[in-house]
Specification:
There is one protein chain. By secondary structure, the chain is of the alpha/beta class. The chain has ten helices and 17 strands. The protein has two domains: 146 residues, Rossmann fold (3-Layer(aba) Sandwich), CATH 3.40.50.720; 172 residues, 2-Layer Sandwich (Dihydrodipicolinate Reductase, domain 2). The strands form three sheets. The chain has a nine-stranded mixed beta sheet with strand order 16-15-14-13-7-12-11-8-17, covered by helices on one side. A six-stranded parallel beta sheet has the order 3-2-1-4-5-6, with helices on both faces. Strands 9-10 form a two-stranded antiparallel sheet. Strand 14 and strand 15 form a beta hairpin. The longest helix has 20 residues. The chain is globular, with a radius of gyration of 20 Å.
Length: 340
C-alpha cells in the first residue's frame, strides 16, 4: 500500500481544474507530470496553479517515464474511449476520467471490457455524489426519518448526453444502485446544438423502472420547473435537491418545508467535492471498497442515456440490456433521419 501516490493529468484545459485541486491539497498525492499536445498551454496551466510537474506532449511517453499511480484524463468526449483504453493497456493502476464514458454505447462496452481484463481501476468524474447538498440528502435517508426513495423526479440542465451523466448517476444512486429494467423516452430535436463537438438535443423526457420497483422521470432541457436537481418522493416525505447548494424537505403530516443551504464559498464547495472524489479513488486502490465512481455505476447511467435515445429512434419501450452499439442520435443525424 503506497503512502504517496504519483499522479498525472492528461489534458490541461478547464476541466483539469477539478483534478489539480485535490492533487495539490492532499499530502497523499504528488503531481509528477502533465501532458497536452499544446505544451505551452500545459506550462501555463502549471504556472496558474503554482505546480511544477514534468510537461509532456505525448501521454504514452509520460506514462513510461513517470510511472504514475493515478492518471486523470481531461479530454473532449471523442477521445475518451481511445485514451482510456490505451492507459489500461499501459498498465496504469488507476485512471480517473472525465465523463461521459464515450460517444457511442459500443465504445462504452469496449471500454468497460478493456478495463475489466486489465485490472486497472477506472473511475469517472461524477463528483456531484460528494457535493455537500447530496451528502446531506444521503445522510437524511440513512437516518431513517424519510424512509427510502420510491419515486424520483430528475431535472437535467441542457443535454441528456453529457450533463445527463451527472443527473442519471445521482438518480441511480438514490434508487439504491438498482439495475434499470426498462426505459421509455423521447428526444425533442427541433434544434441541435453541440457540446465539446458532440451534437445534442433541444430537450428530452424519459420514464425509467428499476428492478427494485423504484421509478424515475427525467426532464432535460430548459422548459422545466427546476434547472438542475432531484425530487425524491420517499416513504415518509419529500426531499428536493437543487444543484449545487440548496435543498428543502418535508415529512408527510407536517405540511412545512424545511430549507438547507451550504453556507461555504464556491471554492470551499469545490474543494470539499473534489476531496470526496480523491478519497473514493484512493479507497479503491487500497482495497477498502469498490469506488462509487467506478465503471459499473458509470455504465448503468450511460446505458440509460443511450436507451433514451434508442427509445426515441425506435418509438417503443427499451428493455435492458441495451442491444445496440451506436449513438442513436448521432446515427439519425448522419443518415438524414434528422437534419440540422
Amino acid at each position: 500500500m503506497a503512502d504517496t501516490y504519483r499522479t498525472a493529468i492528461i489534458g490541461c484545459g478547464r476541466t483539469a481544474k477539478r483534478q489539480v485541486i485535490p492533487y495539490k491539497a492532499d499530502s497523499r498525492c504528488e503531481l509528477v507530470a502533465v501532458a497536452d499536445l499544446d505544451t505551452g498551454k500545459a506550462t501555463r496551466f502549471c504556472s496558474d496553479w503554482d505546480v511544477s510537474p514534468a510537461v509532456y506532449s505525448d501521454f504514452s511517453e509520460m506514462i513510461h517515464k513517470e510511472q504514475p499511480d493515478i492518471v486523470s484524463v481531461c479530454l473532449w468526449p471523442r477521445l475518451h474511449a481511445r485514451v482510456n483504453v490505451a492507459l489500461a493497456e499501459l498498465g496504469v493502476p488507476a485512471v480517473h476520467a472525465e465523463k461521459p464514458i464515450a460517444v457511442t454505447w459500443g465504445e462504452c462496452l469496449a471500454t468497460a471490457e478493456a478495463f475489466r481484463k486489465s485490472g486497472t481501476q477506472l473511475t469517472f468524474s461524477h463528483q456531484r455524489r460528494f457535493s455537500p447538498v447530496i451528502q446531506r440528502a444521503r445522510a437524511m435517508l440513512a437516518g431513517g426519518d424519510y424512509g427510502t426513495a420510491e419515486r424520483i423526479e430528475a431535472f437535467n440542465p441542457d443535454n441528456i448526453y453529457d450533463w445527463g451523466t451527472h443527473t442519471l448517476d445521482l438518480t441511480c444512486m438514490f434508487a439504491g444502485e438498482a439495475k434499470p429494467q426498462w426505459v421509455m423516452g423521447q428526444l425533442d430535436t427541433r434544434e441541435i446544438r453541440s457540446w465539446f463537438d458532440v451534437p445534442f438535443e433541444f430537450a428530452s423526457i424519459a420514464s425509467i423502472r428499476f428492478d427494485n420497483d423504484v421509478r424515475a422521470v427525467v426532464h432535460s432541457g430548459h422548459d422545466k420547473e427546476i434547472n438542475g436537481g432531484l425530487r425524491l418522493h420517499c416513504t415518509h416525505g419529500i426531499i428536493e435537491i437543487h444543484f449545487e447548494k440548496t435543498m428543502r424537505h418535508m415529512r408527510f403530516g407536517e405540511g412545512v418545508w424545511h430549507d438547507w443551504t451550504f453556507e461555504g464559498t464556491d471554492e470551499e464547495h469545490t474543494a470539499t467535492t473534489c476531496a470526496g472524489v480523491l478519497d473514493d479513488i484512493i479507497a479503491g486502490l487500497r482495497g477498502e471498497h469498490a469506488p462509487e465512481l467506478g465503471i459499473d455505476n458509470a455504465m448503468r447511467s450511460s446505458e440509460i442515456i443511450y436507451a433514451i435515445m434508442e427509445s426515441s429512434r425506435s418509438r417503443c419501450r427499451i428493455d435492458f440490456p441495451l442491444d445496440i452499439d451506436d449513438s442513436p442520435l448521432l446515427t439519425m443525424l448522419a443518415d438524414g433521419t434528422l437534419t440540422l
